[in-house]
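Final report, Chapter 2: Outcomes

The project's central promise was a pipeline that accepts a single protein chain and returns its three-dimensional structure in a standardized token representation, suitable for archiving and comparison. That pipeline is now operational. To close this chapter, we reproduce one record exactly as it appears in the project archive, with the input sequence first and the structure output second.
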Amino acid sequence: MKRRNFMQNSAMAGLGLSFLSGSMLSGCTSTTEHSAEFKKLTFDLLKDWCDGMIRMQVTAPANPKVHGLLEYPVCETVHTRCFDAVYLFLYMVS
């Protein structure tokens, strides 16, 4: 099979599956509403995590290569997945 045919067949299969799953899920209207206590617990946990990440943030305006990064204090390593925290911080600001 040629690469172009493979890509076209894969795209068509993906589209077909997305329409199939969309039509199957369209009848599903039940949503779970969590209690106020659960929402408070999860918000407080998120706040603790964000506060911890802010404490690990490198504050070195003189060195723009590391300023603002999150450094893990135990191994003194800058972990590269810190950009995943952006959504969490945006949620806390809103």
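Archive annotation: The first strand starts at residue 71 and ends at 72.
This record, like all others produced under the grant, will remain available to the consortium after the project formally closes.
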